[in-house]
Design goal:
heterodimer, A: alpha+beta, Nucleotidyltransferase, domain 5, Substrate Binding Domain Of DNAk, Chain A, domain 1, six-stranded mixed β-sheet, 13 helices, B: mainly alpha, Helix Hairpins, 9 helices, 58% helix
Chain lengths: 621, 212
């Protein structure tokens, strides 16, 4: 029986439960509205918020478009792809292969963090700022506060990475209803359950990660049969291949030091991205790199063929993951009824063609591949808040879990691709006479030896009765909840003496650390910061509008009608934004006005130069 | 058949009540057959089992029943019970233990007539593992896999026949059945090894695992 909650005390903004895709490159939120999932975009702005954080000299970080705008000017304080650092150590990251312009360091607990202006930032904090940007964006679109959310992660995220995602949400003040795997969410977005029974393959190639999942759909129940992927393969790698071209082309022409300069790397990355996007449309595009400070203006034509040769091996790696998933699910390619494409990188024609060749059928591309995951998360949010019982998701754990035994082998407790929630109990015993404690090393991964798997943490069961070797009976229980998060408990059973242990997160933040960060003012800083930023932007808008108003009439003749029309629209939007309070809206209006007024500025600059030169001539006369 | 403590409806599963949605409390997970309201037996109707799984998921899954410890435990018990009943090896293992037969750890032998073949198979596997891709030793893995699969099916059929109808206490050679199951386990491991060799060959990399 359902009761309607009456909330008469709370007169604040209405609260909504959204789905959030916290992506490597872009993040966004979606909400179930009018019987379907819809992405949340403030009027006139895109739904996506770039997953970029910029830390200015003073004040709180900038997020999204505003942060991305600083990437070229101030690359060392602008963090892209923070998601790649989540729950990882330096050794995991392979930064030599994919260098970043900012400084990555390691905490005492071997966690990657970023040093910005003398402060160490955990990836959780950086992600929390991104989430804050997404929530502001959502609020601007709906007028409602985001109370809680379903957040998606790559299917291949391990326990540490999932925990880090939860911590980020907690820092951002979001209650996490559920962590859902991205490809699983995508299958929900397409509403494939309405087609009846079938097997679906979801191919998800994002900015930084690749996932493939195979699902069966039957009677509204989505069951993940197998999942596979690569947490370090995505569109960023396509960009990197083009950056490599630029570096090769410039090696002879510029000082070697420039090729490692953060500003150069950032500019090269952005140029590569532009070139990649153009190549999805045109058979040939320019890789065009300018660095005015270094007097560099370099251009090279890249054909689609050439690009495809560069990324071919990367695409092949995704296909290998698909084949592994099929083997795991005991399926043939012919058993797959539908293929769904997710992630911006599936816009690359060579990717689409490769997927179509492998599965022998045209993949679904009806929904925007950048929006699908958030939309699916919104469907799941709708289910979790009791909106519908027509759909149910049975997900699996992507990696096996086990315990290191004597000799360094792994005793598997939960096999990969087990349906969650699940639990397993196993008996362990002592190996020495009179042993009173056992140290358990909990590992995640598929390899035979514990040292080749990821250690999630060690814990010790103390106070065992001193018995001959092999006599103590210790029952260890692994429980994976519906989020795929692990709890381990151990109990000494021969004497009935029990001791339960909560596993110390080796790669996550401890509760104390999260509390500490919250106390350090994260929550309030965010609000204060947003308010101050809006005030600053209002002032800036005023100055810009004044300058444009003063100069537009005199320069009108030198501008083409399209430029003038766009400028006038941007001016109108900016005028409106002066009375608005939502940061994303005001920021968006400012950015648009700046863009639209660039041609005007150029005309004015010409005029100034001419005057200066003419003046000189006069003097000379 | 017990009645629901909340609404009095007859319960067909110990997990909870489909009529009013109340989930049961239990310290130790109920047996696999009990979860699905089935009498212990070798024969299981796979389609009916799958239908019952989906139906019970709607009752227990935390997404529908609420994110409580109870829902997590009930669904974990359900998933485990389904895994046991859907897999012939695990089902036979469950039945043998139910009948009071030896645990896997208590009877480690394989049937005598099997041992010579095991030696041959091991040799073929080791040869293939140490030979390059495309070699005759590797090519032999295909037919070997087929042979192992048919052996496994044959042994499981024998085990199934001995368990149908379910023998009364003390009437079956349970240790003998356990030895046959050990052979099934050996065959499963050998097949897994072949699969990994082929996968590694297809990928030209290490066995599957995360790259991090």
């Amino acid at each position: 029986m359902g009761y309607i909650e009456l909330d008469v005390l709370n007169n604040d903004a209405p609260r909504v439960v959204v789905g959030i895709d916290l992506g490597t490159t872009n993040s966004l939120a979606a909400l179930w509205q009018d019987g379907r999932p819809q992405v949340l975009a403030p009027e006139g702005l895109p739904a996506t918020v770039p997953s970029v954080v910029h830390v200015p000299e003073e004040g709180n970080p900038l997020v999204g478009h505003a942060a991305k705008g600083r990437a070229l000017i101030d690359p060392t304080h602008t963090v892209f792809s923070a998601k790649r650092l989540m729950g990882r150590g330096l050794a995991d990251l392979d930064l030599d292969q994919a260098p970043v312009p900012y400084r990555v360091t390691e905490s005492e607990r071997k966690l990657a963090q970023v040093e910005l202006r003398g402060k160490q930032w955990t990836p959780q904090e950086l992600s929390a700022w991104i989430l804050t940007g997404v929530m502001e964006h959502a609020k601007a679109a709906t007028g409602a506060e985001v109370a809680s959310a379903v957040i998606t992660v790559p299917a291949y995220f391990d326990d540490a990475q999932r925990q880090a995602t939860r911590d980020a949400a907690r820092l951002a003040g979001i209650e996490v209803l559920r962590i859902v795997n991205e490809p699983t969410a995508a299958s929900l977005a397409y509403g494939l359950e309405q087609k009846g029974e079938g097997t679906v393959a979801v191919y998800d190639l994002g900015g930084g990660t690749f996932d493939v999942s195979l699902l069966s759909i039957e009677d509204g129940v989505f069951q993940v049969l197998a999942t596979n992927g690569d947490t370090r393969l995505g569109g960023d790698d396509f960009d990197q291949a083009l950056v490599g071209l630029a570096v090769d082309g410039l090696r002879e022409r510029v000082p070697a030091a420039l090729l490692e300069d953060p500003a150069f790397l950032q500019a090269a990355r952005l140029a590569a991205e532009r070139c990649k996007i153009a190549l999805s449309r045109d058979p040939e595009a320019d890789l065009h790199l300018t660095l005015p400070d270094h007097d560099l203006d370099w251009r090279r034509a890249v054909t689609r063929e050439e690009f495809e040769a560069l990324i071919g091996p990367l695409i092949e790696r995704t296909l290998q993951s698909c084949r592994r998933a099929l083997l795991d699910a005991d399926l043939e390619v012919g058993d797959v009824d539908e293929v769904v494409l997710v992630g911006g990188s599936t816009r690359v024609p060579a990717v689409r063609a490769a997927v179509e060749r492998l599965f022998g059928r045209k993949p679904h591309t009806e929904l925007n591949p950048d929006h699908v995951v958030a939309m699916g998360a919104a469907v799941q949010a709708h289910v979790l808040t009791g909106g519908t019982r027509d759909v149910l998701l049975m997900d699996v754990t992507p990696l096996s879990l086990g315990i290191e035994t004597i000799g360094g082998a792994v005793a598997k407790m939960i096999e990969r691709n087990s349906t969650i929630p699940c639990s397993h109990k196993e008996g362990f015993t002592t190996y020495a006479d009179g042993q009173t404690g056992i140290v358990f090393n909990v590992v995640q991964g598929e390899r035979e030896l514990a040292e080749d798997c990821r250690s999630l943490g060690r814990f010790e069961l103390k106070g065992l009765p001193p018995l001959p070797a092999g006599m103590a009976r210790v029952g260890v229980r692994f429980a994976l909840d519906a989020d795929g998060m692990l709890t381990v408990t151990a109990k000494e059973e021969s004497t009935g003496q029990s001791a339960s242990i909560e596993i110390q997160p080796m790669h996550g933040l401890t509760d104390d650390e999260v509390e500490g960060m919250l106390e350090a003012g994260f929550e309030h800083a965010r609000e204060d910061f947003d308010r101050r930023r809006v005030v600053e932007l209002h002032t800036e808008l005023g100055t810009m509008l004044l300058a444009i108003g003063k100069n537009l009439e005199s320069a009108r003749g030198a501008l083409d009608p399209e430029t003038i029309a766009e400028l006038e629209e941007a001016v109108a939007a900016a005028e409106a934004a002066r009375s608005q309070q939502e940061l994303p809206t005001v920021q968006g209006a400012r950015d648009r006005l700046e863009q639209a007024s660039l041609p005007l500025a150029a005309v004015l600059m010409d005029g100034v130069v001419k005057q200066a030169v003419e003046g000189k001539r006069l003097d000379e006369v | 058949m017990t009645a629901c403590p909340e609404c009095g409806d007859a319960l067909w599963t110990p997990l909870g009540c489909e009529a009013c949605g109340v989930l049961a409390q239990f310290a130790d997970a109920p047996g696999a057959f009990e979860v699905f309201g089935l009498e212990p037996a070798w024969d299981v109707d796979r389609k009916a089992l799958r239908r019952a799984l989906l139906r019970l998921q709607r009752l227990t899954h935390p997404d529908h029943a609420g994110a409580t410890d109870q829902a997590e435990r009930a669904t974990a018990a359900l998933n485990h019970a389904h895994e046991v009943l859907a897999d012939e090896f695990l089902r036979a293992d469950d039945l043998i233990r139910r009948l009071g037969g030896p645990e896997e750890g208590a009877e480690r032998q394989m049937p005598q007539e099997f041992l010579m073949e095991v030696l041959e198979w091991n040799e073929a596997l080791d040869d293939a593992a140490s030979s390059p891709a495309g070699s005759p030793e590797r090519e032999a893995l295909g037919p070997l896999a087929e042979e192992l699969k048919s052996q496994r099916a044959a042994v499981l059929a024998e085990v199934g026949a001995a368990l149908t109808p379910l023998p009364g206490p003390g009437t079956a050679d349970l240790a003998g059945l356990r030895r046959r199951l050990n052979a099934v386990r050996y065959l499963a491991r050998a097949l897994e090894r072949i699969r990994e060799l082929r996968l590694a060959e297809a990928n030209d990399t290490a066995p599957p695992g995360p790259s991090l």
